[in-house]
């Protein structure tokens, strides 16, 4: 996938120009349209300033205006209106493209990020970034050339004022500087508010998940429901509202001070008119221009809250990007690399992985859970069970086997050859999985590859054909019972046609009849097709189905039993019981 939308590299908190640079970098792919919109808008802005001068000249002309004046007036009007319209159209075009590119970019980052980083981030934070940060950045960038136009109009107007009276312009600039000082102080305070708002948006997203995904639990638990609604969700909502109102109060106070200063300047000018013997053309020119330029100036000042929120959003996205650093070469758009084959076996040689400590400050002194060193071979056409107590490391082991966690030590070999980091994504294509927290895609099999001809028959085999059919490769419904949905997940894993299928406690929510069918018919059938089956199971009644049973304890392999010998297998050598 094209990684053409670079997100900020610097820290916008410390680097004052990081946001500007990041915005320019974001706009870079669209520079022709951005430049055209900005230039046309700037031309329109300058035409507006010239129009004001023309109006003042017309007002002061003792013997009326002629055809030449009217022609120039009409030309400036046309340029002003068209420039503004063109800038608006160009802006929205660029804005839409930019937002689309930013959304795709964040999604691509998630798709390529290390699984451990995604697990660390938690879904609600990712969703909040996808929704709130993109929104904040887009609101600001949508208007970048609008701000450029406002700035040009302002500078053009000040240029005209300079020509009319440098001394009076100095007075205006003093007022503008005082207004900027007040705004600057207010801005520092409202940035603190907006940072807190953004944190509260994460909390809100978390509580939205709680009330949707935990709807059933909350319906039967009134105290918790009240706490979630009033304290957790309500607290986040109220925090956002009060912090935003505080920020806006500061903004409007600063804005009012700015406007007051503006009118003060006009008042002072009128007061000093006679004392300084100002010409009527100068006074009327200043009055017209100052009243007009207040619009673009307000637009520029009004951009500050959006700018602040965009800055915070950039900081968030930068942090996310940093946490997703070291992403793997995962093909998203171009066809991937080679689809590997499994001829003999996959071997884990001394593979280790340790989670970071739950308390990174290390205050509780507990290290993260560690798995390994693991020596294990998975052979083509065998059923391998991984068993052990809760928390013994079974799922972590299969995440290592699948290449979802990169081994921190040791190596994975495919048919004797080490799997290099660049080939890990290809290697992962050997597997189909049904995790305990699986996600059910309603498109069956490998997208674009068509369905295996026996798919309908397999639905019957799974005793689900009376509920679900396949329409154009899509399940007609997934509104099913828990066990039935899991059968569809199994169908998906089977239809993907991969040489290795991994089941994480698949049978846990199946009825006894179907559980029996799974262990005694489906698994042996899949083995007959030449696939390797790695099955995490607590069903000790069916351990006899496996060719080998790997017993995990405390993150290591305690022993491996083969069915023939029912004793420790040679392949377990080196895995000391813990
Ligand atoms: N995402 C994670 N981040 C940090 N630590 C984790 C994470 N997932 C698991 N662990 C740690 O690893 C240990 C083993 O977890 P794992 O899921 O591998 O166990 P399991 O044998 O599959 O357990 P179960 O039978 O309950 O599914 C956990 O007790 C926990 O301490």
UniProtKB/TrEMBL annotation:
Residues 33-309 form the ABC transmembrane type-1 domain. It is a multi-pass membrane protein. Residues 346-577 form the ABC transporter domain. One of its GO terms (cellular component) is plasma membrane. GO terms for molecular function: ABC-type transporter activity; ATP binding; ATP hydrolysis activity; ATPase-coupled lipid transmembrane transporter activity; peptide transmembrane transporter activity. GO terms for biological process: peptide transport. Gene3D superfamilies: ABC transporter type 1, transmembrane domain (1.20.1560.10), P-loop containing nucleotide triphosphate hydrolases (3.40.50.300). Signal peptide: none annotated. InterPro entries: AAA+_ATPase, ABC1_TM_dom, ABC1_TM_sf, ABC_transporter-like_ATP-bd, Cyc_pep_transpt_SyrD/YojI, P-loop_NTPase, Type_1_exporter. Keywords: ATP-binding, Membrane, Nucleotide-binding, Transmembrane, Transmembrane helix. The lineage of its organism: Bacteria, Pseudomonadati, Pseudomonadota, Alphaproteobacteria, Rhodospirillales. It is found in: Cell membrane. The chain crosses the membrane at residues 30-53, 65-87, 158-182, 250-270. This is Cyclic peptide export ABC transporter. It comes from Azospirillum lipoferum. It holds the Pfam family ABC_tran.
């Amino acid at each position: 996938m094209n990684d053409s939308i670079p997100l900020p590299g610097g820290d916008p908190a410390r680097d004052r120009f990081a946001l500007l640079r990041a915005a320019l970098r974001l706009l870079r792919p669209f520079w022709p349209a951005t430049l055209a919109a900005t230039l046309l808008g700037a031309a329109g802005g300058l035409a507006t300033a010239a129009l004001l001068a023309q109006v003042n000249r017309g007002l002061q002309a003792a013997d009326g205006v002629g055809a030449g004046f009217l022609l120039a007036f009409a030309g400036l009007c046309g340029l002003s209106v068209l420039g503004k319209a063109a800038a608006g159209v160009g802006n929205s075009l660029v804005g839409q493209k930019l937002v689309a590119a930013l959304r795709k970019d964040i999604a691509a980052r998630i798709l390529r990020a290390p699984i451990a980083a995604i697990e660390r981030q938690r879904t609600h934070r990712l969703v909040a970034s996808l929704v709130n940060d993109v929104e904040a950045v887009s609101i600001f960038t949508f208007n970048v050339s609008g701000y450029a136009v406002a700035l040009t109009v302002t500078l053009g107007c000040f240029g005209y004022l300079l020509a009319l009276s440098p001394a009076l312009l100095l007075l205006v600039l003093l007022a503008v500087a005082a207004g900027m000082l007040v705004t600057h102080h207010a801005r520092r305070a409202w940035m603190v508010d907006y940072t807190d708002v953004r944190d509260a948006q994460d909390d809100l997203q978390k509580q939205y998940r709680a009330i949707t995904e935990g709807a059933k639990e909350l319906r039967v638990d009134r105290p918790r429901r009240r706490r979630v609604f009033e304290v957790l969700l309500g607290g986040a909502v109220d925090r956002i509202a009060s912090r935003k109102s505080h920020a806006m109060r500061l903004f409007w106070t600063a804005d009012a001070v700015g406007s007051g200063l503006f009118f003060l300047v006009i008042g002072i000018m009128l007061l000093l008119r006679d004392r300084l013997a100002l010409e009527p053309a100068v006074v009327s020119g200043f009055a017209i221009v100052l009243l007009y330029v207040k619009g673009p100036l307000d637009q520029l000042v009004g951009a500050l809250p959006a700018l602040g929120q965009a800055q915070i959003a950039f900081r968030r996205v930068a942090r996310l990007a940093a946490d997703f650093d070291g992403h793997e070469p995962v093909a998203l758009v171009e066809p991937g690399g080679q689809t590997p084959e499994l001829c003999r076996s996959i071997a884990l040689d001394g593979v280790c992985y340790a989670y970071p400590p739950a308390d990174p400050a290390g205050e509780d002194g507990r290290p993260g859970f560690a798995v390994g060193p693991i020596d294990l071979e998975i052979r083509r056409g065998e059923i391998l069970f991984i068993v052990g107590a809760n928390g013994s490391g079974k799922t972590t082991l299969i995440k290592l086997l699948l290449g979802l966690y990169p081994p921190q030590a040791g190596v994975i070999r495919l048919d004797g050859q080490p799997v290099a980091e660049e080939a890990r994504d290809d290697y992962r294509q050997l597997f189909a999985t049904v995790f305990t927290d699986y996600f059910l895609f309603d498109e069956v099999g490998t997208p674009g590859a068509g369905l295996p001809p026996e798919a309908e028959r397999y639905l019957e085999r799974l005793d689900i054909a009376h509920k679900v059919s396949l329409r154009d490769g899509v399940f007609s419904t997934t509104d099913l019972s828990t066990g039935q949905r899991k059968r569809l997940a199994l169908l998906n894993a089977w239809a993907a046609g991969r040489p290795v299928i991994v089941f994480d406690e698949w049978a846990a929510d199946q009825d006894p009849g179907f559980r029996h069918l799974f262990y005694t018919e489906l698994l042996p059938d899949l083995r007959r097709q030449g696939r390797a089956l790695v099955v995490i199971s607590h069903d000790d009644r069916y351990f006899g189905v496996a060719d080998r049973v790997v017993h995990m304890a405390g993150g290591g392999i305690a022993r491996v039993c083969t069915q023939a010998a029912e004793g420790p297998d040679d392949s377990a050598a080196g895995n000391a019981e813990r």
